[in-house]
Amino acid sequence: MPANPLLRPIDTLLDYAAIRPEHIAPAITQLLAQARDAITGAADPAPGLRWETLMPPIQAASNRLWRAWSAVSHLNAVVNTPALRDAYNACLPQITEFSTWAGMHPGLYACYQALHAQGDTHNATQQRVLTLALRNMRLSGVALPPEGRARYAALSEQQAQLAQKFSENVLDTIDRWFLLVTDEAQLDGLPPDVRQAARAAAEKDGQPGYKLTLHMPCYLPVMQYANDRHLRETLYRAYGTIASEQGDTALDNSPLIEQLLALRAEEAALLGYAHFADLRLQTRMAQSATQVQTFLRDLASKAKPPAQRDLARLRAFATTLGIAGLQPWDIAWVTEKLRQQQYAYSEDEVRHYFTAPQVLQGLFDVIHTLFDVTLHPEPASLWHPDAQMLRVADAQGQTLGHLILDLYARPGKQSGAWVDSERVRHRLHNVLLTPVVMLTCNFPNAQDGFPACLTHDDVITLFHESGHALHALLSTQEEPALSPFASVEWDAIELPSQFMENFCWDWHVVQKLSRHRDSGAHLPRALFDKMLAARHFQSGMHLVRQIEFALFDMLIHTQDTRPDMTQVQNILHQVRAEVAVIIPPAWHRFAHNFSHIFAGGYGAGYYSYLWAEVYSADTFAAFEEAAQGASVLHAASGQRFRDAILAPGGSRPMRDAFYTFRGREVSMDALLRHNGLH
Ligand SMILES: [Zn+2]
């Protein structure tokens, strides 16, 4: 049998195409055993303990384990098959158990304490690593008595399994649901490429007609363009009840939500915190749940009046289209019509200018101008022909890392856009390992000989994710514990990503990004001016929606008693009454599909997007000030941003990094201005 591809040396790139489900269990079992042995062997707090005897062996073994597991998790998310899912799930309990074991290893904790006590013998980087390790281990229950540690371990394992099942229920409900439309008249209004994709999907199943699904490249255009109100309602209802008690009970997330909230509350109590939000905020920029709620309500007070105006305008316009009682499934459709009337362009028109190859080239140019790094396509063995490997090089041509782009939607791929990494920057025994970062989106793929076309929102998504990727790629930290995804505060992690979005609104940048799929022309100035005019269209409504999600998340995680599903729904209703302007029907089940907080690590952390946006907006304002009306692609500011914000990774608090960059504390002004709210 050939060597297991998951066991390749850490300083070589993985051969993704060679990884089979049957490789997973043997590799993970072996790497787990090695990581366990490394900790057991090195964690001896005897006199003579030194950094050099403790850290390198543990790091070397951990690197290999986490690289393999990250690759497996990634494959499970982007090329999901029953066999892969089974192999992943079979290993998940062992992985969680190991993390818990290592996170509360008394010998390791004693070693970190002993090293920490040696003080000045370590440099600032090493001291930061030790401080964070001690904090993280305390939060992992190491200081608990034995029975508390056992309970903590059980809680962690159950939560991981519930979170995994939560996202599977969502994915399966979406994958299984479809609507076969045989009467083409029902698709009136839908763009031809969406129809063709629906036709192709039906054909693939050997069916006549058009297959509509809840996957974003189908669901969104239906909500936005389908003139058939009943069709929109049908898809809206299906989407709004995903993984709820109104569908297949085997895929109902209700009991999972109740169990997750109960387990989280118990975990917080065990570690001595009033509630789960308090526990989570230990590793955040924000100081307390109260501070977060005040922040959100403050923002709501500024955003709700404009949101109400947005909605009133929409209602009034809807009546001119013959819609008297505006329903949630009309919002996107009426919005698109209003946008067309108000700003005389359609997203579909814009989309044909943003051809994927040109957008990517433009993005690479932006990155080059701002940060003086270049991206070079490189052959690689990956998981799908659509995935593409790029080598990231500095001005001298030195490799800083690798970026894998996987941009298009397909069956078996988790929806949404995100960045994860398989390997982080790490100097070990004088060998520098460079990061391998994966950037994943779900854009509609190329069809009919045309390149893939992105909406302007898609372009913004791509820039957003590139900010996360750059954070990982341009950090100069050589300790894995200080890599951005390991130790930058959760509520600051969106700073670089939201910052990058701003460039999609700069005329010079948009020129670089656009090339019409038919004519090859750049986006015309007149069309861009309309987009600019439309930029703040409904930004009040958009903002209150984000506040609604964030406040709901914060409130369900700060309850004195453990809420059941009815109470969770009640909290959602109260939050909506307080901050929202659009109230979905009573049967709508938002929480059941809120994977961010129940399956994605954003529990008691959804506010982070808004929190970080205050910082990212203020950061971008520095570029606007430096540009003085010229292009915001201001190289000197880019360099300062790279040095102050990206390079430090988790080596210091983001508050300090931001202060270094801006020379003052943060201000909310830029956020309000960028949203057209003052
Ligand atoms: Zn993000």
Mean of residue pLDDT values = 95
- Low-confidence spans: pLDDT under 50, at least 5 residues? none
Radius of gyration: 25 Å
Question: Termini separation (Å)?
Answer: 66 Å
Tell me roughly what share of residues is in helical segments. 55-70%
Largest sheet: 5 strands, mixed
Ligands: zinc ion
How many helix segments? 27
Strand order of the largest sheet: 3-4-5-9-6
Structural class by helix and strand composition: alpha+beta
Q: What is the count of β-strands?
A: 9
In what range is the share of β-strand residues? 5-15%
Structure summary:
The protein is of the alpha+beta class and 678 residues long. It has helices spanning 21-42, 51-78, 82-103, 106-117, 124-139, 146-176, 192-204, 216-225, 229-240, 254-270, 276-280, 289-320, 328-343, 347-351, 356-371, 456-474, 484-487, 495-501, 507-513, 525-534, 539-556, 565-579, 595-599, 608-627, 635-646, 654-662, 669-674, and strands at residues 178-181, 210-213, 374-377, 388-393, 399-408, 418-423, 426-428, 431-433, 436-443.
